[in-house]
Amino acid sequence: MIQSSPPHRLTHVRAGFLALTPLWLGAAPFGVIYAVSAMAAGLSPAQTMAMSLFVFAGASQFTAVGMFAAAAAPAAIIVTTLIVNARHLLLAASLSPYLRREKAWIRLGLATQLTDESYAIGVRQFLSGRGSAAFQFGANISMYLVWQCSTLAGVLLGRVLPDPAAYGLDLVFPLTFVGLLVPLLRRRDSQVVAVSAAALTIAGALWLPGSWYILLAGVVASAVGALLRLQIVDC
């Protein structure tokens, strides 16, 4: 990746930020639902906002809120949410080949900010040869902003706002990610990995307790992809 001048980097940051704005419609209902659920579980407004500010992981936040409502031990909440969010290690690892020339603190910062949607937007740019750390940063910050704003809206207005789930808006987020993912599945091995992950996730959701199936599906599907790549290399 070619190092760009500061003005050029700002252009890339802006491009990444704007590229993700169409996905705000899908993210905002989740932020509102999270805030309402958190306060219903007994978290204060400050605690609800702090979790979005410092955890910034939708699935983990929903998991933590559910366990808090069930009076789970703090250690169990922390460990479980870390496991649920461990899939982001796989996302960060897949971006590392494109960021090798960046400083370690830049790579670490981008990795900690990744979400499913900002990753999908960023990796499309990298695969097209137009990606950059600055573009990825802009996409990450865009999602961070809408998540904080929607959480705040849920805290302040949650009692008077209609439930977004009642209108099916909670489905926009995952469906958007699927829509971003499918065009990237150009290779046969990538298609096999995606189908494997989807099948394992559905099976896990039906038959396994908790949210462990998310990490399990990601690890197993990644292992399948690695074996397929090895076979291709050997051939």
Set down the secondary structure blueprint.
Elements: H1 6-20, H2 24-40, H3 45-54, H4 58-69, H5 74-84, H6 87-95, H7 104-113, H8 116-127, H9 133-157, H10 172-181, H11 188-207, H12 212-234
Helix pairs in contact: 1-9, 2-4, 2-9, 2-10, 3-9, 4-5, 6-8, 7-9, 8-9, 8-10, 11-12
Characteristics:
single chain; 235 residues; mainly alpha
Rg from alpha-carbon coordinates? 19 Å
**What count of domains describes the coordinates?**
2
Overall strand count: 0
> What share of residues is helical?
over 70%
Mean pLDDT: 81
**Structural class determined from secondary elements:** mainly alpha
Q: Which residues form runs of ≥5 with pLDDT under 50?
A: none
The outline comes out as: globular
Task: Note the beta-strand portion.
Answer: under 5%
Separation, N- and C-terminal Cα atoms: 30 Å
Secondary-structure element series? HHHHHHHHHHHH
Task: Provide an overview of this structure.
The protein is an all-alpha fold. 74% of the residues lie in helices and 0% in strands.
Task: Give a quick rundown of the structure.
This protein is mainly alpha-helical and 235 residues long. 74% of the residues lie in helices and 0% in strands.
